Amino acid sequence: MTRRELSVTAAIAGLAFVLAVRSAGFFAPDNLVDLFLANLPVLIIALGMTLVILTGQIDISVGSMFAICGVAAGVLAKAGVPLPLVAAATCATGMALGSLNGALVAYARIPSIVATLATMVALRDGLRWITQGAWVQDLPDRFQWLGTSQSIYPVLAGSIAVVLVGLFSWSLRNLPVGRAIYATGSNADAARLAGLPTGFVTFATFALLGALTGLAALLNSVRFNQIPSNAGLGLELKVIAAVVVGGVAITGGRGNVAGTVLGVVLLGMIGPALTFLGVSAYWERAIQGGIILAAVAFEALRARPVSHAAAVAAART
Amino acid sequence: MLLQATAITKAFAGVQALKRVSFDLHPGEVHALVGENGAGKSTLIKIITGAVRPDSGTLLVAGHAIAHMTPSAARAIGIAAIYQQPALFPDLTVAENIALALETPGRWTRVDWPARKRRAASLLERVGAAIDPDRLVETLSMPEQQIVEIAKAIGADAKIVVMDEPTAALTDREVENLYRIVRRLRADGAGIIYISHRLDEVFALADRITVLRDGETVATNEAVRVSRPELIAMMIGRELSAVFPKRPVSLGDVALELRGVSNRAAGIRNISLSVRRGEIVGVAGLVGSGRTQLAETVFGLTPADAGDIVVNGASRRITSPADAIAAGIGYVPEDRRQHGVVLDMSIASNASLASLPRVSHLGLIDRRAERQSAQRYAEQFRIKCASLEADVGTLSGGNQQKVALARWLSTEPSILILDEPTQGVDVGSKAEIHGLMQQLAERGLAIIMISSELPEILGMSDRVAVMHAGSIRAVLGRDLATPPRIMALALAEDAATDNTDPSATDNTDNTDL
Question: ipTM of the predicted structure?
Answer without folding.
Answer: 0.80
